[in-house]
Amino acid sequence: MATPRFIRRGFRGSLRPFRMVSFAALLALFAAASGCSMNPWYTASRNIDNSKRLRVGMTKSEVLEVMGKPLADEQFCKPDCWYYYIEPVWVDGLTTEDECMPLVFENGKLVGWGRGFYVRYRLERKNAAPTIKL
User: Fold this and answer.
1) Sheet containing 109-113, strands listed edge to edge, beginning at the edge strand earlier in sequence
2) Helix, strand, coil % (nearest 5) of the chain?
3) Which of 13, 81, 90, 91 lies most in the core, judged by the most C-beta atoms within 10 Å?
4) Is residue 109 classed as helix, strand or coil in its secondary structure?
5) How many CB atoms lie within 10 A of CB 15?
6) Domain at 36-128, CATH from 2.60.40, 3.40.1310, 3.40.50, 3.30.1450
7) How far apart are alpha carbons 42 and 49 in whole angstroms?
8) For residue range 90-110, what is the model confidence (pLDDT) as tens digits?
9) Rounded CA gap, 65 and 61, in Å?
């Protein structure tokens, strides 16, 4: 009569499949705990898709419904210019202005979005500002 395989290899050999399954389960648990929202490419893709539903004249509450909560704790954030992460450049845990899409509001209404719009908007406001002659 043949000896069972796990007895021939000893006790240590019989734990190998258990270790592999445990490792795979631990990896799956870690991946599920970290979630998709922590992935910068997922966040950027979601924000780009949501921005396709934006329309000039939307109120801040309507924009919040479409886009979700904007970045708030960055130095470049302003009350009438919201920023959304759209382009992972370094994936270093830091969010910089060049990785974000600005949404510009005037009197509580959306007037435009995107880097190109924001640059033109700031130049127009700068040129329209009254100059003081000394």
Assistant:
1) 81-85, 100-106, 109-113
2) 50, 15, 35
3) 81
4) strand
5) 12
6) 3.30.1450
7) 11
8) 777 778 888 899 999 999 999
9) 6
